[in-house]
Automatic annotation (TrEMBL):
<dbReference type="Pfam" id="PF08450">
    <property type="entry name" value="SGL"/>
</dbReference>
<comment type="similarity">
    <text>Belongs to the SMP-30/CGR1 family.</text>
</comment>
<feature type="active site" description="Proton donor/acceptor">
    <location>
        <position position="196"/>
    </location>
</feature>
<feature type="binding site">
    <location>
        <position position="14"/>
    </location>
    <ligand>
        <name>a divalent metal cation</name>
    </ligand>
</feature>
<feature type="domain" description="SMP-30/Gluconolactonase/LRE-like region">
    <location>
        <begin position="12"/>
        <end position="254"/>
    </location>
</feature>
<feature type="binding site">
    <location>
        <position position="98"/>
    </location>
    <ligand>
        <name>substrate</name>
    </ligand>
</feature>
<keyword id="KW-0862">Zinc</keyword>
<protein>
    <submittedName>
        <fullName>Gluconolactonase</fullName>
    </submittedName>
</protein>
<dbReference type="InterPro" id="IPR013658">
    <property type="entry name" value="SGL"/>
</dbReference>
<feature type="binding site">
    <location>
        <position position="196"/>
    </location>
    <ligand>
        <name>a divalent metal cation</name>
    </ligand>
</feature>
<dbReference type="GO" id="GO:0004341">
    <property type="term" value="F:gluconolactonase activity"/>
</dbReference>
<dbReference type="InterPro" id="IPR011042">
    <property type="entry name" value="6-blade_b-propeller_TolB-like"/>
</dbReference>
<dbReference type="GO" id="GO:0019853">
    <property type="term" value="P:L-ascorbic acid biosynthetic process"/>
</dbReference>
<keyword id="KW-0479">Metal-binding</keyword>
<feature type="binding site">
    <location>
        <position position="100"/>
    </location>
    <ligand>
        <name>substrate</name>
    </ligand>
</feature>
<feature type="binding site">
    <location>
        <position position="146"/>
    </location>
    <ligand>
        <name>a divalent metal cation</name>
    </ligand>
</feature>
<dbReference type="InterPro" id="IPR005511">
    <property type="entry name" value="SMP-30"/>
</dbReference>
Amino acid sequence: MVDLLLDAGALLGESPRWHAAEARLYWIDIDAHRIHRTDPATGATETMQLDQPVGCVAPRAGGGLVMGLKDGCALIDAWGENPRAFGPAVLAGIAEQRFNDGCVDAAGRFWVGSVTRDKSNPGAMLFRLDPDGSLTPMLGGLLTSNGAAFSPDGRTFYHADTPTHALHAYAVDPATGALGDGRLFHQFEQGKGRPDGGTVDAEGCYWSALWDGWRVVRLSPAGEILQTVEMPVQRPSMIALGGTDLRTAFVTSAGKDLSDDARAAQPHAGGLFTFRVDVPGIVQPGFGG
């Protein structure tokens, strides 16, 4: 059963990240320039208002957050503080791009990709932000970098370029962070939802939220769909696994750009949803910078 945890009315809810030490879910509203911190036991939510879009967030190992903003990455040392730039402002001057989806690997590196509004020009990229502030290009020729997640052993990196309807899996060296060969992991049917944000559970299965697909799916390490969870919203955007036993799925969604009829069919679009899963998630590592 899918439950509505918070009728948030987010324009573009994204980047849910479970913070095990705090027992809180961090998530964002990209278009409203907000970072939220929700207590799932009560639904109580704190909000930080930023002055620019925030594409993704992740906890830092030493406290605070790392985030992808409009032009580059930034850090905060404690909740409520102003972000400070960290690493090069690689997207500065590229008006059609901003940072989008990101995740942290076991070595504490932040993998963060961009999105471009110019869908005739695949100029978006995936980068790796190391704890020393260096930013390394990893993949290019993208439209919407999404779905970043690592297998439990850290040797497989999952990634989606959302408009292609395709998920890819790449070999990765956990020690160096170098990407190896990639393969098609799963090709979703056109017109039935596109892979947005994702996460991996303790069995190495990959959960994907399908934008415009009204569902999230769980795929085996071989890329086969094992489970489908129908959602009460058209645009589920990302899924995280958390809670005290790591067996609660948290799903963000988007409520912007819906027609009156579409809005009537999904009055809780932009909400934060939960459901229970059989296989727990993985404690997410913190960024080392």
